[in-house]
């Protein structure tokens, strides 16, 4: 079975059962600072899980692009991926546990013909926040699953969400396939990480809302959110050993073999990391929101992925621009399913080549210093004071002093061999001066059985650049689940500012992303030059003019074609399907959007731009506030 056949089989199965297909949303969450990337299919649907009406109804199905870095250390085994495709079916206040579990059982045993005796499940064991899920277990029993293949596990295993700090969440039932491998011990069961049981589906029963204080309260609308991993199920369906042996990775790995002259069979982990990380990087770069490598937020995660792949390629003597050559194969493999990769092809290739050039400048010098630190040839000392730490991180440039020999020993310091740990100051110096992500340094250290003071590194990192985020695990408050009055007003302000920017700078300006908390608006847009103070003043004036005019914010539903014909903008409209919501502010803005919005522009009070800056090639950012903060 091909990947396309599996995608279509899934979608057909659920459309035959009353679901409407929706397109994959962007990998970059819209208006949500609570996560860096879309980590699951439910993330783009949070407003609808909370009760907002979806244009296509209450039963939905999709294939969602997802990215997670929490398991990045597991990449290289048979099943873990950083980027993956999540097939999902949804009930927005329609059916619940019985129908959901029955659908999953039928798809696996009838559509995919998986032997039922190979399937085991887990259910939530219960705790102080929610009771044991006997209802789900009873449904599995009614479908012929014996108690020995129904396991109850705690919240750490059988609870999903919220996607950020707050939001909808609930118990889940997870479905595992028995690979036939022997048990690793008497306690081996679904959820064990030995490889015998592979998780293939997760049905989440969203019954609760978690607030900012950690309190769980029942949702007025009970929802079902499922996630069926394409890569893992394709692997099982075709009887291959790992996801890297499927059509999704084989051409990529063959290209890496041809570029390096090495054999995949002799370098399993290295080739898998290269293939996985460059696939993830290609999808981030190829997203319509235009994320480029940088030292903050999504751009920093992207940079980590690229540089880790580059390190493995250079170890195998790959030629220049090997990363972009591999990315070309990935684009060719996926562009029919995800056309944005074709649209953004030139950006993908250019950014990979640029990052390779930037990192290449400092890698050799940085490796010499890292090897001296890690081989214990010098004691831990920054020497020369902290002058080298004053530069912006990332390795695009470095202090001439750092080209000299390593700093003098710190009096009385023990050699690294005796300490067994690389001090935080040195790990941070490698990051700050040579652009080595912490994970990169940790890998180098592990090769010598040396640990790294990661806690100390993060403290230095936070002090050096407070607003940077050192990985996808770190979250900010707010997000799509925050439908507060403040974020709703700021969302409306983003529409007004987008319209004003296009009026002042021209219609080549498009939104590239936004990030809204209750305190401020952050808006990214396409522009290859700095916006002048006069232009910013005019944008601000137009938005305040709209606020003073007290214009109603009107929502209508129509087809995407009709929306564009009516002059609506919205480069992310593909996620909404056959019917979209268009929010109109007469004379100022007309956009395809999922909401939420203020009822009238007068509700915003006032608008003020605080800062305008470049964040990547061709992408700029404005930070703004409204209300009393703008006066």
Structure description:
- The chain has 631 residues and is α+β, with helices and mostly antiparallel strands.
- The chain is built from 19 helices and 18 strands.
- Strands 1, 2, 3, 4, 5, 6, 7, 8 and 9 form a 9-stranded mixed β-sheet that branches.
- A hairpin with a 3-residue loop joins β15 and β16 (589-592).
- α3 (97-111) runs parallel beside α4 and α10 packs across α12 (345-374).
- The longest helix has 30 residues, at 345-374.
- It starts with a helix and ends in a 5-residue tail after the last strand.
- The relative contact order is 0.10.
- The model is unreliable at 377-419 and 467-481 (pLDDT under 50).
In short:
It is built from 19 helices and 18 strands. With 631 residues, it is an alpha+beta fold.
Distance between the termini: 61 Å
Low-pLDDT residue spans: 377-419, 467-481
Radius of gyration: 26 Å
The percentage of residues in β strands lies in 15-25%
Total beta strands: 18
Q: Note the overall shape.
A: globular
Helix run count: 19
Major sheet summary line: 9 strands, mixed
Mean pLDDT: 84
Q: Helix/strand/pairing class, anyone? A: alpha+beta
| Subunit arrangement of the protein | single chain
List keywords for this structure.
alpha+beta, 4-stranded antiparallel sheet, 18 strands, single chain
Write the layout of secondary structure elements.
Layout lengths: L2 H13 L4 E3 L23 H4 L9 E9 L15 E10 L4 H15 L7 E6 L9 H9 L7 E4 L1 H4 E2 L6 E12 L18 E14 L5 E14 H8 L12 H11 L7 H18 L11 H19 L6 H13 L5 H4 L1 H30 L41 H4 L1 E2 L1 H11 L3 H9 L4 E2 L1 H11 L20 H21 L5 E6 L4 E6 L6 H16 L5 E5 L1 H6 L14 E6 L3 E4 L14 E10 L2 E8 L5
Parallel strand pairs: 1-2, 4-5, 10-11
Antiparallel strand pairs: 2-3, 3-9, 4-7, 6-7, 7-8, 8-9, 12-13, 13-18, 14-15, 15-16, 17-18
Helix pairs in contact: 3-4, 7-8, 7-10, 8-9, 8-10, 9-12, 10-12, 12-14, 14-16, 17-18
């Amino acid at each position: 079975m091909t990947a396309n056949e599996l995608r279509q089989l899934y979608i057909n199965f659920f459309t035959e059962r009353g679901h409407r297909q929706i397109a994959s949303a962007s990998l970059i969450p819209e208006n949500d600072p609570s996560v860096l990337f879309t980590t699951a299919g439910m993330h783009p649907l949070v407003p609808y899980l909370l009760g907002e009406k979806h244009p296509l109804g209450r039963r939905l199905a999709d294939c969602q692009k997802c990215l997670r870095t929490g398991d990045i250390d597991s990449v290289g085994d048979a099943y873990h991926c950083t980027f993956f495709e999540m097939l999902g079916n949804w009930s927005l206040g329609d059916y619940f546990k019985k129908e959901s579990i029955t659908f999953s059982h039928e798809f696996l045993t009838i559509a995919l013909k998986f032997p039922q005796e190979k399937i085991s499940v887990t259910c939530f064991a219960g705790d102080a926040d929610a009771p044991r899920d006997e209802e789900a277990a009873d449904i599995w029993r009614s479908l012929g699953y014996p108690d020995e293949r129904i396991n109850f596990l705690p919240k750490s295993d059988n609870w999903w969400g919220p996607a950020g700090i707050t939001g909808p969440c609930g118990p889940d039932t997870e479905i595992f396939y028995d690979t036939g491998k022997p048990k690793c011990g008497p306690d081996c069961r679904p959820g064990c990480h030995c490889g015998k049981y592979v998780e293939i589906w997760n049905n989440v029963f969203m019954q609760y809302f978690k607030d900012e204080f950690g309190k769980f309260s029942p949702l007025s609308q009970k929802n079902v959110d499922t996630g069926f991993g394409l890569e893992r199920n394709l692997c099982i369906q075709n009887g291959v050993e790992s996801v890297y042996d499927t059509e999704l990775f084989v051409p990529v790995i063959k290209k890496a073999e041809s570029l390096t002259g090495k054999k995949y069979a002799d370098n399993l982990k290295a080739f898998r990391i290269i293939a996985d990380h460059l696939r993830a990087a290609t999808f981030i770069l190829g997203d319509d929101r235009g994320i480029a490598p940088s030292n903050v937020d999504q751009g920093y995660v992207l940079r980590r992925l690229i540089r880790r792949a580059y390190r493995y390629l250079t170890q195998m003597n790959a030629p220049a621009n090997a990363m972009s050559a591999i990315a070309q194969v990935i684009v060719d493999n996926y562009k029919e399913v995800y056309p944005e990769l074709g649209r953004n092809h030139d950006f993908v290739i250019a950014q990979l080549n640029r990052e390779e050039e930037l990192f290449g400048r400092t890698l050799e010098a940085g490796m010499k210093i890292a090897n001296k630190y890690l081989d214990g040839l010098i004691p831990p000392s920054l020497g020369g004071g902290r002058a080298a730490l004053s530069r912006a991180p990332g390795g695009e440039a470095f202090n001439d002093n750092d080209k000299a020999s390593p700093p003098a020993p710190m009096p009385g310091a023990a050699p690294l061999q005796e300490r067994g740990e690389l001090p935080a100051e040195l790990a941070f110096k490698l990051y700050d001066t040579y652009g080595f992500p912490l994970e990169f340094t940790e890998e180098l250290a592990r090769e010598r059985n040396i640990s790294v003071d990661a806690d100390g590194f993060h403290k230095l990192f936070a002090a050096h650049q407070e607003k940077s985020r050192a990985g996808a695990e770190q979250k900010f408050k707010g997000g799509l689940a925050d439908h507060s009055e403040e974020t709703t007003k700021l969302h409306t302000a983003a529409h007004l500012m987008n319209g004003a920017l296009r009026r002042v700078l021209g219609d080549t300006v498009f939104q590239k992303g936004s990030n809204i908390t209750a305190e401020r608006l952050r808006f990214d847009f396409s522009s290859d030059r700095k916006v002048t103070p006069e232009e910013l003043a005019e944008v601000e004036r137009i938005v305040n003019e709209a606020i003073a005019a007290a214009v109603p914010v009107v929502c209508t539903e129509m087809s995407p074609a009709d929306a564009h014909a009516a002059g609506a903008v919205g480069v992310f409209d593909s996620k909404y399907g056959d019917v979209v919501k268009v929010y109109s502010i007469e004379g100022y803005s007309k956009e395809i959007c999922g909401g939420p919005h203020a009822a009238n522009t007068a509700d915003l009070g006032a608008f003020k731009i605080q800062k305008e800056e470049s964040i990547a090639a061709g992408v700029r950012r404005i930070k703004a506030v409204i209300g009393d903060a703008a006066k």
